[in-house]
Amino acid sequence: MCQTEEFRKMPRKVVFISNAHRTCAISNQKVGNGEPIIWDYHVVLLAQGKIWDMDTLLSFPCGISRYLTQSFLKNTFEKYLPKFRLIDADDFIDVFASDRRHMLDDNGIPIHPPPPWPAIHPERGSNIYDFINMERRGLGKILNLEQFGKLK
Fold this sequence. Notes:
By secondary structure, the protein is an alpha+beta fold. Helix content is 19%, strand content 22%.
């Protein structure tokens, strides 16, 4: 999505959502029919002060404040609180690679159907865990829920 002509003309960030436990509780997701579900990681786009989440039941796109208050419970256990890695979309496109092997079980069978869009640079293998790991510095800036909520 961040590579479409419409989006290339605006500042945009790819946002990885995860935490040290890889257990982020996110509400209003299609898979959970609105009930909170646990994602090991989730990826959205931030552009024009809005979140573009292909899996949300909220508006598409959705304002940051509404998205955060209706997707994440502030008064929950630490292990379910999200952290956010914000990466300039152009940097993300240059560096990220995924052959989707993380979506397969031990027998090479998909755990869930893969998304309809093509894998990103699958010829390079996969570096997705570098982006999901919120404990390690790397490309982008890591924010907690409160810090992310202060973005405009």
